[in-house]
Fold this sequence. Notes:
Blueprint: E1 4-10, H1 17-24, E2 28-31, H2 33-39, H3 45-48, E3 52-54, H4 58-72, E4 78-84, H5 92-100, E5 105-108, H6 113-121, E6 129-132, H7 151-158, E7 160-164, H8 171-181, E8 187-192, E9 200-204, H9 206-209, E10 218-223, H10 250-260, E11 266-271, H11 277-285, E12 289-295, H12 298-311, E13 316-319, E14 334-337, H13 344-354, E15 358-363, H14 366-378, E16 381-388, E17 391-396, E18 399-404, E19 408-415
Parallel strand pairs: 1-4, 1-5, 2-3, 2-4, 6-7, 11-12, 11-14, 12-13, 14-15
Antiparallel strand pairs: 7-10, 8-9, 8-10, 15-19, 16-19, 17-18
Amino acid sequence: MNAKIFVVGIGYSLLSQNSREILLKSKHILTSTRLLEVFSTYHEYDMVKDQVVLIDGVENTMQFIRNFLKDCGSDQCYLSVLASGDPMFYGIGRRIALEFGKENVLISPELSSIQIAFSRIKEPWDNAFLMSVHGGPYPGRRINRYEVDDIPYFLSLYGKVCILTDPVNNPTLIAKTLCEYFEDGPYMYVLEKLGYGDERVVEGKPIELSSMQFREPNVVIVTLPNLSSAPRFGLTESDIAHKNGLITKDEVRALVIHSLKPPPRGVVWDIGAGSGSVSLELSLLFPELTIFAIEKDPEMLALLWENKRKFKARYKIIQGEAPEALSNLPTPQRVFIGGSGGRLLELLDFVSNAHPEILVLTLTLLENLCFILNYFKGKGYLVDITQVYASRSKEMQGMLRLSAQNPIFVVAGKRS
């Protein structure tokens, strides 16, 4: 390929000499409507305005580049794409480099909106968690790695979070979400239209900002001065909201998590999640895991939400009965079945067809144990069975005795 694609960040400072030369020699300069408003204020705009092509939407931009490269043939030709701030920070630069090859792309970054935002409130950002809930242009929103509902989790973990927003996942929604998870503590900054002549910084507690409207584009920074010292692992049954003793017991839960051998990132299905004790501790231990807690019982669903808010946990609650409720979920790397609702064979067939690396179940009945053992062998799984038969200390007349718990089988199947 003789063509070169230049991705040039703009927004907050004058163009560098290198960026200016790039734009001058480009046959076309692609820009969105919003960025054209910014670029038109640059001194260089009058020099290159005849080369500017107004095009909105990432897919439209990518198709224009494909057509341009096809038309170029073997000729040496140059194309520039304007981007906001740093094109490699949740920007179009990543997509262009991935599709057209790093060797054919030159990135010329500007300061990012994140850098500008933290400088405006005079806060360091080397200890902040950075995330984007920006769904991209309309229509055709992309699926984000993070959601607004994840913000309380990362805030409680890091104490400082910066969020790239959009008109749907906006500061008002973020403020309302924080109010659901925190009674007090978080402090918000909304930085509107950074780099524009009418930029503005609005700050306050989430409850104060939850009824306000904000101008686009904007960046949100949330701080939490006093981080919790609560354990990330080792929660007890008394810590977790549940009913009638229906919870995966502490000792069993620890073995289930160990048997799942959770990866640093990936997808986990927790089927028959109940009050969510397994999803809860998995979430607290592994920030980058995407955990789906599937439950059909309304009372249990209420407990799932209660525990999620109490511990600022990061798991997605799916209301419905498995296996039907699993149909639209992403492919799992790990699956835990804590309850089957009498549909164990249907569940196993569905889950087996999803090809998780490890499937773990908890069982009490010997008949189910024999069935599972034969099923796993028939599917070619390597099987590991552990019986948990724990006794806990219990005080009696000022002394301690051991009180036995019901025995539970933890069965792990691993694809060979």
